[in-house]
């Protein structure tokens, strides 16, 4: 199949490009480089050993987007990663989030409509569950509005895609609710590139271990969890990338309108367990302290993965230690603090 990957030079997008290549798909990459580097394109061509068409284009620019579809006829599927993803930034710049994550999505849906694209895979998030009453969460756990524009953008996007798909018989959509993606490709040629001070746990850990940051603060030790720290479902980015490829196969081979899948490992790990895993798997001692809770943090969430394993036939292969190890291997390629 010929697959357009929006945001294909970003963290999850770049890993997915590699998995699409391994599965034998034709790939077209689109990215506006707002949160990625152009050299990732060359690196992807090196990993894949073939040239990969790339368009520096913005999904908010409907004319530029249409040009890509005019040049690349016969797109069978779109994996739509392109979005802004910082929860805290979305509180400072809500309109920027509505524009990228909602207006951008509408422009992409317009292309699905006009160019009769058959398959659409969307990056959603476990953030749509908010603070769940029960864990693990299934796809039927109620979704809830978020205190942040980022979180709401995922909820609204899911609603729009579901309605649009219902009314547009030629397209099938898959909404993947990611839990906490971490780690990097084994080659350490691609990985996560946070700009500025990371707000996510794993990049903060690796940057602290590398001496870019002085100390990791573990936010909250008084949660109602076995060790008092928050619990998340960390998933290796390569496993997550593979779920996209399998989603496309599923969409090609099955009759449905929109399907939603949790993409996590099904295992909850506490923040302290992640720190222990990092130290154990890398042999590097981490400088950390316990600090007050971070406002807005969910206490505990992890995925019920029954649906994704039974229906898609996907299952994760990487352990938490693999996630720590590959994240560290990637960090070591980044050299001194920029
Ligand atoms: P990322 O920022 O690394 O990748 C997104 C890519 O999209 C970047 O390369 C960026 O330059 C590009 N982009 C952003 N706005 C664009 C626009 N208007 N036009 C064209 N390109 C644009 O983020 P990621 O971690 O790879 O996340 C990918 C998707 O997964 C996002 O939709 C994100 O919301 C979602 N998601 C991420 C996480 C996570 O923790 N990383 C969790 C759940 C969901
Ligand atoms: C994980 C845990 C922190 C940093 C966010 C978004 C969510 C989703 C994934 C996209 C929490 C703790 C963190 C640090 C810490 N993204 N932590 N010290 O909060 O689950 O989710 O990213 O959709 O929408 O909200 O991920 O990595 O920020 O935090 O103690 O320096 O690590 O308090 O308990 P989170 P995270």
UniProtKB/TrEMBL annotation:
<comment type="pathway">
    <text>Carbohydrate metabolism; galactose metabolism.</text>
</comment>
<dbReference type="Pfam" id="PF16363">
    <property type="entry name" value="GDP_Man_Dehyd"/>
</dbReference>
<comment type="similarity">
    <text>Belongs to the NAD(P)-dependent epimerase/dehydratase family.</text>
</comment>
<dbReference type="InterPro" id="IPR016040">
    <property type="entry name" value="NAD(P)-bd_dom"/>
</dbReference>
<keyword id="KW-0413">Isomerase</keyword>
<comment type="subunit">
    <text>Homodimer.</text>
</comment>
<dbReference type="GO" id="GO:0005829">
    <property type="term" value="C:cytosol"/>
</dbReference>
<feature type="domain" description="NAD(P)-binding">
    <location>
        <begin position="4"/>
        <end position="325"/>
    </location>
</feature>
<keyword id="KW-0520">NAD</keyword>
<keyword id="KW-0119">Carbohydrate metabolism</keyword>
<dbReference type="GO" id="GO:0003978">
    <property type="term" value="F:UDP-glucose 4-epimerase activity"/>
</dbReference>
<dbReference type="InterPro" id="IPR036291">
    <property type="entry name" value="NAD(P)-bd_dom_sf"/>
</dbReference>
<dbReference type="GO" id="GO:0006012">
    <property type="term" value="P:galactose metabolic process"/>
</dbReference>
<protein>
    <recommendedName>
        <fullName>UDP-glucose 4-epimerase</fullName>
        <ecNumber>5.1.3.2</ecNumber>
    </recommendedName>
</protein>
<dbReference type="InterPro" id="IPR005886">
    <property type="entry name" value="UDP_G4E"/>
</dbReference>
């Amino acid at each position: 199949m010929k697959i357009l990957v929006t945001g294909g030079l970003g963290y999850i997008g770049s890993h997915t490009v590699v998995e699409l290549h391994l599965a034998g798909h034709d790939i077209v990459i689109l990215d506006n480089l707002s949160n990625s580097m152009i050299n990732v394109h060359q690196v992807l061509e090196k990993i894949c050993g073939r040239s990969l068409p790339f368009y520096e284009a913005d999904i908010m620019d409907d004319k530029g987007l249409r040009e890509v579809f005019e040049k690349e006829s016969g797109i069978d599927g779109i994996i739509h990663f392109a979005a802004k993803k910082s929860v805290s930034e979305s509180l400072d710049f809500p309109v920027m989030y509505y524009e990228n994550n909602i207006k951008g999505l509408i422009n992409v849906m317009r292309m699905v409509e006009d160019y009769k694209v058959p398959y659409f895979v969307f990056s959603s998030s476990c953030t749509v569950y908010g603070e769940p009453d029960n864990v693990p969460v299934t796809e039927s756990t109620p979704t809830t509005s978020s205190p942040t524009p980022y979180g709401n953008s995922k909820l609204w996007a899911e609603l729009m895609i579901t309605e649009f798909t219902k009314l547009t018989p030629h397209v099938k959509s898959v909404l993947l609710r990611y839990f906490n993606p971490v780690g990097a490709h084994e080659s350490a040629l691609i990985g996560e590139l946070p700009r500025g001070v990371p707000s996510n746990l794993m990049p903060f850990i690796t940057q602290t271990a590398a001496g870019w940051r002085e100390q990791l603060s573990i936010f909250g030790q008084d949660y109602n969890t076995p060790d008092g720290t928050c619990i998340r479902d960390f998933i290796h980015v390569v496993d997550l990338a593979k779920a996209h490829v399998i989603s496309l196969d599923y969409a090609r081979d099955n009759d449905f309108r929109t399907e939603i899948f949790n993409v996590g490992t099904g295992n909850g790990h506490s923040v302290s367990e992640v720190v222990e895993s990092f130290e154990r798997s890398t042999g590097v001692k981490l400088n950390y302290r316990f600090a007050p809770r971070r406002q807005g943090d969910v206490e505990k969430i992890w995925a019920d993965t029954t649906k994704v394993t039974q229906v898609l036939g996907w299952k994760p292969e990487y352990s938490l230690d693999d996630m720590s190890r590959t994240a560290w291997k990637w960090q070591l390629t980044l050299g001194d603090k920029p």
